[in-house]
TrEMBL record:
Domain ANTAR: 161-239
Biological source species: Streptomyces longispororuber
One MF annotation (Gene Ontology) recorded for this entry: RNA binding
Protein name stated in the entry: GAF domain-containing protein
SUPFAM superfamilies in the record: GAF domain-like
């Protein structure tokens, strides 16, 4: 994953006459293996030289929402959850800047690039990352991210296949789903938002404390980090009454 590709690299914007992805990275209706984008072959992640693939869509508040991963548990969802909790990382950068992010060696990445994400990611098996924005014109409606447990760049073929897969998934999203709202509505079967509770807790806290939603989410994140609990668990605790809105009014 050459570092130079992080600036001006191709994204997943559809282009006329795009050559279909090779069979290893092509979405095929006959290859559906479970919840998620129909037909993504089970060996796609390996054929791309990766250990985890994730797809996020931007919800009504603009934050990347994890809707699918291969494999469904483990490294990919863990890293996406960390980024959501921290508000920092490659998926957030790809979504915010609308350009591909490629880092072949996370340990050698400039610490100033992702100051919150990198120290935490170093405690996971992740060693390299690539994130491709799913763009519709100038609008980013999602991100396809790949993670690997070894350092080093993808091959040219793997990079092309990843871009083609991203374009195929973008077309699938546009064909099957309206971009979900922050409360989790609008997601298609198999692509349910995983953080609806966090969004609901953010709205609840915003109303109770009389602060903007963005500030409410920051307080949730700060509280979760200070007490070393996942955001989703904190949101549930807030609704269960074991954590009070006043606990965040500081």
């Amino acid at each position: 994953m050459p570092a130079g590709d992080q600036h001006g690299a191709p994204d997943a914007t559809p282009s006329p006459g795009e050559t279909p992805a090779p069979s290893s990275a092509r979405v095929s209706p006959a290859a559906h293996t479970g919840p998620g984008p129909r037909g993504v072959p089970a060996d796609t992640v390996r054929s791309l030289g990766l250990d985890a693939l994730t797809m996020s869509v931007t919800a009504g508040d603009g934050l990347p929402e994890l809707v699918w991963s291969q494999p469904p548990e483990g490294l990919g969802p863990e890293l996406e959850e960390l980024q959501f909790a921290l508000g920092d990382g490659p998926t957030f950068e790809a979504a915010g800047r609308g350009r591909r992010v490629m880092e072949p060696d996370l340990a050698a990445t400039d610490p100033a690039r992702w100051p919150a994400f990198l120290p935490v990611a170093a405690r996971t098996p992740a060693r390299a990352v690539v994130a491709v924005p799913l763009r519709l014109g100038v609008a980013v409606i999602g991100v396809l991210a790949g993670y690997r447990t070894s350092t080093g760049p993808l091959t040219d073929t793997q990079r092309r296949d990843l871009t083609r897969l991203a374009r195929t998934l973008l077309a699938l999203l546009l064909d099957t789903v309206e971009v979900p709202s922050a409360d989790g509505t609008g997601a298609p079967p198999g692509l349910a938002l995983r953080r609806a509770e966090v969004h609901q807790a953010t709205g609840y806290l915003s109303v109770r404390l009389g602060i903007p939603p963005g500030q409410a989410l920051l307080r949730l994140r700060s509280h979760a980090a200070a007490h070393d609990v996942p955001l989703t668990a904190l949101a549930r605790a807030l609704f269960a009454g074991s954590v009070l809105p006043e606990d965040f009014d500081r």
